[in-house]
Structure formats: C-alpha cells, structure tokens
Amino acid sequence: MRKLRSLTALIALVFAPLAVGGAIALSAHAQSAAPSANAADAASAAAAAATANAKPTAPGAMQIVRGEYLARAGDCIACHTVPSQPMFGGGRPMETPFGTLYTPNISSDKTFGIGAWSADEFYRMLHEGKSRDGTLLYPAMPFASYTKVTRADSDAIYAYLMSTSPVHQPNRAHTLRFPYNQRSLLLGWRALFFRAGEFKPDPKQSVEWNRGAYLVEGLGHCTMCHTEINALGGNSASKEFQGGLIPLQNWYAPSLTSNKEAGLGDWSIDDIVDLLHAGVSNRGAVYGPMAEVVYDSFQYLTEDDVRAVAVYLKSLPGHSNEVDKSPKSQFVNEEANRLAPLGKKIYEAQCAVCHATQGQGKLPHFPPLANNQSIQMNSAVNPIRMVLNGGYAPGTKKNPMPYGMPPFAQSLSDEEVAAVVTYIRTAWGNHGAPVSVKEVNALRSAPLF
Ligand code: HEC
Ligand code: HEC
Ligand code: HEC
C-alpha cells in the first residue's frame, strides 16, 4: 500500500516539468540565449530529409544544423536553460508538492555537462530513460515520448549539443522528500507506463502524416500536457490527446482530436498552422504554457513540418465523451441566469473594445471568444486566469509584435470575474458551463507561472 501511495505521488514528478512551463512565456521575450533563428531556415532542406526513417546524414556541419532544428522540435531549451543564463546549463527549478527537481546541465562541458558522453549513451538516455551510469530518470524528462526518436535524429541532437559552448556549472541536487527521492519507485512507474520503441511509420498513411505523427508523438511530447493523467501518474492510452488539466500549473490543455466541439474537428489545417507557427489564428491565440511551446519550439519549425503536425492532428479520431452533454442541473442554470446579465454589462464595458460585441474578435490581433474551444472546456481555469492575469501572445517570426490583454484582477471582484467568464462561456452559442465565485477566488492565489 505504502508503495502504491508513493507511486501515486510520482504523479507530481511526471507533472513537474509542466509547472516550470509558463515561467518562460513572458520572460521569453527577453531571452538572450536563443540559438540563431535562421538556423531553422538553413535547416529546412535538411529537415525535409529528416523523415522518420531517414538514414544518418554525413557527420559535420549539416548534422549539427539538423540537430539544432530537432532540439527545437523537442523544446530541450525550455527545461534545460534558466532564462537569460547560458544555454543548456540546466539548474531550472521544477516545483512539485514533494520537493523540487533541478534540470541537469546538458551542455558540452566534460565535467558537469554531457561532454564526456558517447552518442550511444545519449541514444540510450533518450530511448530508455537512463542516465550515463544507468540511473533511471524521472519521467519529468519526457523520455516516454523521446523514445520514438530515430537513431539518426538522436545522433544529430547529440552532435548539436556537443557543438554548443560548455557551461562549467555543477548540477544542483533535487530536493525531493523521502520516499520520492527513491529512484527504485520508478521501476513500478516504468512497468505500468513506459514502452521503449522508435516510431514506426504507417505505410498506409502519407509521408506528410507520418512526419506529423513522428513529431507529435516523439520530440513534440504533446501528450505530456494534452492527455489526462490518471491516478498513477501515467497517460492512459485510451484518453490520448483528449485534453487534460495540468495540475500544479492550473491550465487546461484542450483536446487535440477531431471532436468538433472539444477538439480541432472544425478547424481548417491553415488555422492550426497559423496558431502553432504565428501564435495567433482565426480561432484564437495561444496563451499560458502553449505560448511558451510556440515561442521556444514551433515558430522555428518549417511551415511544412507544422503543416504535417496539423495533418496528423486532424486525423485523430474524436470521442463522444469529450464534451459533457448531460442536461445542466437547475442550480447551474440558475447560476448562469443570475450571473449572465452582470457579465454582459461588464463584457460590453471592458472587453468588447478588443474582442468585439459578438465575441468575433478583431483579427489578427484580438482573438475571437465566440466558438473558441480553449475557453469552453469542462474546466474553466483558462478563461478565469486570462481575465485575472491578462497575457501576451508570443512574439514570433510571423507575428513579431503581439498585442496584449490587460489583467483584471485588481479592477474586478470575484463575483464580477465569475459573471464575465460565465457570459463569454455561454454567449454566442458557446457551450461552456457557468463558473462560480469560489472557483475564481481559488485561482486568484494560483502562482502566476
Ligand atoms: C519538460 C522538461 C524537459 C524537457 C522538455 C527536456 N528535458 Fe531533459 N531532463 C529533464 C529533467 C527534469 C531531467 C532530470 C531527470 C532526473 O533527474 O531523473 C532531465 C534529464 C536529461 C538528461 C540526463 C542528464 C544526466 O546527467 O543524467 C539529458 C541528457 C537530457 N535531459 C537531455 C534532453 C534533451 C536532449 C532534450 C530535448 C530533446 C530534453 N532533455 C528535454 C527535463 C526535461
Ligand atoms: C507544457 C504543456 C503543453 C505542451 C507540451 C503542449 N501544449 Fe498545446 N496547449 C497547452 C495549453 C495549456 C493550451 C491551452 C491554451 C491555448 O489555447 O493556447 C494548449 C493549446 C493548444 C492548441 C489550441 C487548442 C484549442 O482548442 O484552442 C493546439 C492546437 C495545441 N495546443 C497543440 C499542441 C501540440 C501539437 C503540441 C505538441 C507539439 C502541444 N500542443 C504541446 C499546453 C501544452
Ligand atoms: C486591450 C485589448 C483587450 C481587452 C480590453 C481584453 N482582451 Fe482578452 N485578449 C486580448 C488579447 C491580445 C488576447 C491574446 C492574449 C494571449 O494570447 O495571451 C486576449 C485573450 C483573451 C482570452 C483567451 C482566448 C484566446 O484564444 O487567446 C480570453 C478568454 C479573453 N481574452 C477574455 C477577455 C475578457 C473576458 C475581457 C474583459 C474582461 C478581455 N478579454 C479584455 C485583448 C484584450
């Protein structure tokens, strides 16, 4: 029993990296450690060849450029770099209820980084989740996804990391409490949730689809946020991509399936490409942890790769249980009726100037709220937090000067925030449920990032 409880607690470690996520979203604008932006452009030719089953390319400059591109796709920088500190020096804290993990130094430094590792050891780490000496890694390092990465791509990432400047900075020990500091617990987690294995292309699908699948399931590690985590801290395969609340961080990552109401079912491929590449689209803007994913990772990918991701996402089957269709209780209806008139008044006075009277937004800078899935989910944390804290879409190559939204935490009471969020979740045909004053109050104290 004790073991099981401890195992359950590992959930926190699985989530841990997510807690670090948003921290970069705002500071990212000032991040100085970013690799050269045009490396991605230069890499596009090489990347085109980097299909799942590509043969290893000749070692040398091309391989390093391709490795930089792939490291972008895997977003290694987000976790392994403290913003405005030397790249890949590690030391980024990840808070969990059981203590703090500090990401390791993965620069080319031979003493403190991975400069002394061989390409074989690096591949084993990505593929099996084991450090150089065989130590089992916590799944906060997304090796459960990276295991799909091909040997050739692993070698390219390795070559790139070896080409970066060594950072002579020792690792900080994790400060996890007993028994969570016992790595032997990971054996149980691995038996339940980890299967090592490279991505296998599906010959019945197009080259583009396979490329998208490879990126989404492998380097992109999208399931880490977009799949609900079960009680034992693993992603249940049957719920893959159906969306989930990111605990600790309190953001909801919506469904990516083709369910029409919850997922991407009635998005066009172009809208998905715009959202992921530019950060803004006809269907909404990215915000919170997803803004960071776009800032650090997606904006550097080629349009072809982003399109391949969209093509693959569009093929994910939707499920009827993704949207709660049960009739709303009388209490819920009364609450909606009570709050909506106040909400409408606030909306017209404070929000319509940017999001327009019918919630249609003012494109491309002010996202629509009508028919915007990311604010209608069963969980209302996203729109509540946006209203409380405001936000900026990420600055990207395609949208270098993003517009912002001011925070309303100071000017609106809990009741007023509940009212306006209830309004935007239920007006204009939106199918969200009303939110309570209590929910708003709880999120006021949520850490900003
Ligand atoms: C979501 C956060 C996150 C991302 C993204 C991430 N890592 Fe990690 N990584 C970690 C954490 C946390 C650890 C330490 C795990 C442990 O101590 O068990 C780690 C461990 C490692 C190690 C082992 C270091 C050692 O000394 O044992 C290597 C190498 C590594 N990561 C490389 C990468 C590469 C390459 C990428 C991108 C393809 C990447 N990481 C992406 C969080 C992340
Ligand atoms: C660190 C957690 C995290 C990771 C990793 C992540 N996402 Fe997200 N994603 C979110 C959150 C939270 C949202 C909701 C906020 C928003 O819409 O911008 C979101 C929103 C989205 C949306 C918009 C959905 C909608 O209905 O509006 C798309 C599309 C998306 N993500 C695709 C991806 C893909 C593809 C990947 C993998 C390459 C990925 N995400 C990885 C957290 C994440
Ligand atoms: C000054 C213009 C402005 C005002 C006023 C404003 N917003 Fe926003 N809003 C934005 C921008 C810009 C974004 C995109 C921010 C991002 O991506 O982080 C946004 C995003 C949002 C989102 C997330 C949707 C998405 O897809 O990005 C919600 C929900 C939202 N606003 C609700 C409101 C509500 C409710 C009010 C009034 C209380 C309001 N906004 C007032 C500009 C504004």
From TrEMBL:
Protein residues bound to heme c 1: C76, C79, H80
Any one of the GO CC terms: membrane
Keyword Phosphoprotein attributed: no
Record text on cofactor binding: Binds 3 heme c groups covalently per subunit.
Keywords: Electron transport, Heme, Iron, Metal-binding, Signal, Transport
Reported cofactor(s): heme c
Positions of heme c 3 binding: C351, C354, H355
InterPro entries according to UniProt: Cyt_c-like_dom (IPR009056), Cyt_c-like_dom_sf (IPR036909), Cyt_C_IC (IPR008168), Cytochrome_c-type_DH (IPR051459), Membr-bd_ADH_cyt_c (IPR014353)
Sites where the protein binds heme c 2: C222, C225, H226
Signal peptide (UniProt feature, chain positions): 1-30
Cytochrome c domain sequence ranges: 62-165, 207-317, 338-428
Protein's recorded name: Mono/diheme cytochrome c family protein
Entry keyword S-adenosyl-L-methionine: no
SUPFAM superfamilies assigned to the protein according to its UniProt record, in alphabetical order: Cytochrome c
Superkingdom of the organism of origin: Bacteria
GO molecular function terms listed in the Swiss-Prot or TrEMBL record: electron transfer activity; heme binding; iron ion binding; oxidoreductase activity, acting on CH-OH group of donors
